[in-house]
C-alpha cells in the first residue's frame, strides 16, 4: 500500500507532465516505484515522519522530475524538428526560386505556417525554427545576385519569426488551458 503522500506526489507529477504534453503512464509508474522504494528505505533506517519527508526532499519536487523527463525528450525532438525545418525551408526556397513561381504571398504564408507548426511542437527555441525555415530564400538571393542589395532579402525572416513565435504562444496557451 502506498502512503498518501506518494499518491499526492504522483498526482502533482502527472499534472506537471501533462502540462508538457507527456501522457505516458509508464513514466509515472516508474517514478511511483522509485519513490515508494525511497520512502521504504527511509522507514527502515528511521521510523519517523521526518525520515519520510527527507526521502521526498532527496527525490526532488514533481516539477524537477518532470523537467528531467523533458530534458531527455527535448534533445531528440529538437534534432528531428531541426531536420524538418531545414527540409521544409529548402523545399520552400526551391519552389520560390522556380522561374514560373511568382507568388510571394504564398511563399510568406508557407514559411509562417511551417514555422508556426514547429513553434507549436518545439516552443523552447522558436528563433531556431524560424532561421532554419526562412534563411534559405535570402541565401539563394545572395548566391544568385551577389550584390549588397540582395542582403535586404533577409527581411523575409519576419514571416517565419512571426509564425514560430505565434506557435510558441499557442503552445503555452494550450498548456494553461489543459488541466
Q: Which structural traits does this protein have?
A:
single chain, 179 residues, mainly alpha, 78% helix
- Major sheet: size, sense and barrel closure? none
Report the end-to-end length measured between terminal Cα atoms.
Answer: 27 Å
Estimate the global geometry from the Cα principal axes.
rod-shaped
Q: What's the SSE pattern?
A: HHHHHHHH
Round the Cα radius of gyration to an integer and report it: 24 Å
Count every beta strand, where a strand is a DSSP E run of 2 or more residues: 0
Note poorly predicted spans.
Answer: none
What is the overall pLDDT average?
A: 86
Describe the structure.
This protein is mostly helical and 179 residues long. The chain folds into 2 domains: 4-60; 75-177, no CATH class. The chain contains 8 helices and no strands. The chain has helices at 4-19, 25-45, 49-59, 62-97, 104-121, 126-134, 136-144, 158-177. α2 packs antiparallel against α3 (49-59), α4 (62-97) packs parallel to α6 (126-134) and α5 (104-121) runs parallel beside α8. The two termini are 27 Å apart.
Summarize the structure.
This protein is an all-alpha fold. The protein contains eight helices and no strands.
